[in-house]
Amino acid sequence: QVQLVESGGGLVQAGGSLRLSCAASGRTFSRYGMGWFRQAPGKEREFVAGISWSGGLSTSYADSVKGRFTISRDNAKNTVYLQMNSLKPEDTAVYSCAAELWGVGRHRDGKEYNYWGQGTQVTVSS
Predict the structure, then answer these.
(1) Phi, psi torsion values for 118, nearest 5 degrees
(2) Average pLDDT of each block of 10 consecutive residues along the chain (126 residues)?
(3) What are phi and psi of 30, to 5 degrees?
(4) How far apart are CA 49 and CA 46, in angstroms?
């Protein structure tokens, strides 16, 4: 069992930055590929970014965030991060992290992920 807890959300002006964190319980964090997803009101959940298990050598991004967001992981701290720069109002959503055993961080529909966090709200004002 893996428990995921997100933090770092908040209110920021357009053009600003936030760094989200997702802390995982347990001693097998490095075995999990990690993903960040978001869901805005009235919209379906969408993939944001993913990172492969172990050293995180493979990353993947949605086209809408490529060049602005960066996913990374620190296995010593059991944490995955999402650095978000140049934020836009359309980035407003609840952001959730998810874990997939032996995942490579490229699955975008969420079905392959085994565990999910509760989410953290990100609001970008114009």
Answers:
(1) -85, -20
(2) 96 98 93 97 96 91 98 96 98 98 90 96 97
(3) -65, -15
(4) 10
d(CA 83, CA 114): 23
* Tokens matching residue 121: 């709200």
Q: Left if phi > 0, otherwise alpha if psi is -120 to 50, otherwise beta: which for 41?
A: beta
Tokens of 48: 């944001």
Structure tokens at 27: 């001693």
Q: Are 18 and 126 in contact (CB under 8 A)?
A: no
User: Would strands 120-125 and 18-24 be described as parallel, antiparallel, or unpaired?
Assistant: unpaired
The whole-angstrom distance between residue 82's C-alpha and the CA centroid of its chain comes to 6
**Backbone torsions φ then ψ of 20, nearest 5 degrees:** -90, 145
